[in-house]
Amino acid sequence: MRDVGPGTRATPAQPAFGRPDVRASGPTDRARACARRGIGGLALWALVAAWPVSGAGCASGGRGSAPTPTPARAQVDPAAARLDTLAAELLDTARARYGRVAAARDPAVGYPRSTGPGGAWTTRPLSEWTTGFFPGVLWLLYERRPDDALLEQAERWTMPLTGIFQGPISHDLGFQFMPTFAAAYRLRGEERFRPPVLEAARLLAGRYNPRVGATKSWDWTDPQRPFPVIVDNMMNLELLLWGARNGGDTAWVRMARQHARTTIANHVRPDGGSFHVVVFDSTTGRRLERITHQGYADASTWARGQAWLLHGFTIVYRETGEALFLATARRAADYFIAHLPADGVPCWDFQAPDCPGTTADRDASAAAIAASGLLELSELAPAADGTRYRAAAVHMLTTLAQPPYAAAAGSEALLLHATGSRPDRSEVDVGLIYGDYYLVQAMLRWQRGRALTGAAPAR
To answer: Which of 69, 116, 418, 458 is buried deepest, with most CB atoms within 10 A?
Structure first.
């Protein structure tokens, strides 16, 4: 799956994957703090490089940093070695395909969302929740191998997103601004990238209702459903946490924590599965109903919603260190893994009657989102569970990087057989931009983690 695409090398960007202070027995609180501030939301995989240090700062270069030791080379793992090769090939392909599309298209016309019958991206207007993912892929690829062409295109597709502030404003500001302006600020360190993220966080905080204890999702007009909260919103909490840490209102941390607790109490089932939508009374905060919008049934577990849940709680635990959030991430991950078919790519809903069915019944985007979250979770969970989460991620990514899920040359996407909304018969069995984003993110996490342990060189 390798396309040929030349690039011009430029000054290296600030690395996202620092070497935080950790001990051989597992990550310390200081390590997590260093990782949070040095690598943003990309790769707690850095915690796998475990060594004791005596300095007061982070080992990635702050004051008091300890000298960086040479990590011991890991034993050869055939499955991991295979994924090393597949990851390098996929990321090279991504560089070529996304570079071509970015240069040929105009963001003023629309942002890639899903593929049509011929494999080309169809586009949506700026206001769509998915608009951050295409430029987000460009920033991920720039991080891997900085070059002037990628930087130019990443900025060209990022800067128009400030037009979102003209309204209408949705709950998906995290999806729009974390992969773009927040990534640009982390990688380039330029002040011009920070204010849009803070403004997005401020607007998201404005959707928070203290009676409900959550931010509002869709602006439904049905008076019987005044305050819907979707499980997807766990991913947007990172915006509030980032904003509070980068000059915004510290009250945003309290909002994010409470939203996560409200999700645990109302969306997460005893078996670790999840409800997609919970509707609340906006005046009293009382729960009115638990339903689905994109899943098979109200009582079923929509696969991508479960992926958002496990990934979102992993992020919130990384940012807060609250044990309840780690426990919830693990419950969500255990459910996801236990309900996977043999190839590791879930059906669009875990209780759908056509499951496992054919590739047309699967959601490869859910697998990519979950795999990326599992790689991060594997470094935060206890060792035995971490090993299991890592193995599941390796299996899923190995499957996604090969046919029938890997898109062949000629497609503008990387990933096939994703499902947007099966009940609406919308974007079924297509490539989806967020599937590509989390696949690239996961492969980068994998590569950086392998390089840090000395198991494989960075490529």
So the answer is: 418
Q: Cβ atoms within 10 A of the Cβ of 288, count? A: 16
Q: What is the largest CA-CA distance in the chain?
A: 62
Task: Tell me whether residue 279 is in a domain.
Answer: yes
Structural domain includes residue 308: yes
The three-point CA angle 421-308-339 to 5° equals 80
Looking at the DSSP bridge assignments, the partners of residue 230 are 277
Contact residues for 201 (Cβ-Cβ < 8 A; gap 6+): 173, 239, 240, 242, 243, 244, 248, 252
Q: Is 232 a catalytic residue?
A: yes
Report the domain count for the chain: 1
Tell me the pairing of strands 26-27 and 227-230. unpaired
For residue 458, CA distances in Å to 396, 447, 452 come to 21, 6, 9
Report the CATH number at residue 292. 1.50.10.10
DSSP of 58-99: -TTTSTTPPPPPPPPPPPP-HHHHHHHHHHHHHHHHHHHHHH
Identify whether 15 is part of a domain.
no
Active site residue 361: no
Q: Whole-angstrom distance between the N-terminal and C-terminal Cα of the chain?
A: 16
Q: Is residue 415 part of a domain?
A: yes
pLDDT in tens, the chain (459 residues): 545 443 433 333 333 322 232 223 344 443 444 444 333 344 343 333 332 322 333 333 333 333 444 444 556 789 999 999 999 999 999 999 999 999 999 999 999 999 999 999 999 999 999 999 999 999 999 999 999 999 999 999 999 999 999 988 899 999 999 999 999 999 999 999 999 999 999 999 999 999 999 999 999 888 899 999 999 999 999 999 999 999 999 999 999 999 999 999 999 999 999 999 999 999 999 999 999 999 999 999 999 999 999 999 999 999 999 999 999 999 999 999 999 999 999 999 999 998 888 999 999 999 999 999 999 999 999 999 999 999 999 999 999 999 999 999 999 999 999 999 999 999 999 999 999 999 999 999 999 988 877 676 667
One-letter identity of residue 249: D
Range of the domain at 252: 26-66+79-453
The active-site residue, picked from 21, 84, 92, 232, is: 232
